[in-house]
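Lab notebook: predicted structure, single chain.

Context: the supervisor wants predicted structures on file for every construct in the current expression panel, including those that have not yet been purified. This is the next one on the list. No modifications to the sequence; it matches the entry in the shared construct table.
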Amino acid sequence: MEKPDYLISTPENVDLHLELAGVGNRIWAAFIDIVLIYLSLLFVIIAAGIAAAVIEQVVPTRDSKSMLYMYLVAGVSLLCFAIYTCYFILFEKLWQGQTPGKRVAQIRVIEATGQPLNWAASIIRNLVRFVDTFLFMVGVVFMIFDKNERRLGDFLGGTLVIRERVPDLSSRSLRIQAEAPNASFVDAGQLTPDDYYLLVSFLRRRHQMNSQSRFTLAKQLEDYFRLKLSPESQGESAETFLEKVYLAYTSRAELEAK
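Prediction complete. Output recorded below exactly as produced.
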């Protein structure tokens, strides 16, 4: 088994093994995002040009034209700044750490603790993006020399960029005995892809474990997911609870895919 690039130990002594995204994947994702941003900026500039032409033809006095041009330039400048800055912030928060470029490159931003990205971390890491990108490629230098491949924005925001796990979603090799829980059982949207990978890994391999190891690990995972999801206790065993969490996650994924 390969040594993980990054290891997080939860308070319940459950180890999350994460694979760092790599400089190449991050540059590829950034290239795609920058192209999309520039296309958006080009659209704004074209629209501004059309607006300027209308002003030139419709507004009769030079003073009124000058004032409208000033407002137009100020508005376009603010809009371009907002597009460049908010593109990353909004996508990373609303798409759980991904932008269109990151989704294509199959990478994701998370907090260094393994939790999903929050608003503060996304804002901080992306406000520093200008320095990382345009000031002598500071971000690439940081990523090359940092063992966890973080750029300056990741340092300040407390974030990591990891490869997106794509586990086998098929349940054919899983022996699930629990009945599908109600929709209100847990909010499966709080689970990260690595949470799901951890859950599926246990459910696949539990039958190969000895009884003591299986019971101990199931209890650790139960404690971890109960702390994270805060479900109402229904008196089920640890493994039954984990099966129900798995079913809740897959049910949500199927609904989102429709």
